[in-house]
Amino acid sequence: xxxxxxxxxxxxxxxxxxxxxxxxxxxxxxxxxxxxxxxxxxxxxxxxxxxxxxxxxxxxxxxxxxxxxxxxxxxxxxxxxxxxxxxxxxxxxxxxxxxxxxxxxxxxxxxxxxxxxxxxxxxxxxxxxxxxxxxxxx
Length: 138
Hints:
- The protein is α/β, with parallel strands linked by helices.
- Helix content is 36%, strand content 18%.
- The protein has a five-stranded parallel beta sheet with strand order 2-1-5-6-7, with helices on both faces.
- Strand 3 and strand 4 form a beta hairpin.
- It is globular and about 35 Å long.
- This is CoA-binding protein.
């Protein structure tokens, strides 16, 4: 399956996005992207150990602290952090891992794909949502 096909499958399948590295700072992409995706109908679950509320949603310190089934994990952390995040996503039962624009890791890819997760790296959710026109629940 091509990356574009995986992107479209993810956008059509998941209505909730768990955002690792979400930011409370509105000038950062890690705040802008979740806010935009929320405006297009996705539910956002922010994960950040230093915040309590981001884009109007309760924040959880780690993926393991999210009290519900996780599907799509969207990552705003340095590439070097992503293998551990991939392991945590697998442990949490996630089924898709998306690394934002500028973030890529062969090791994270191998961890995710070997566990059967859909995987996208170095792509922006806003750009892909606009390109495809897909909205939550589509």
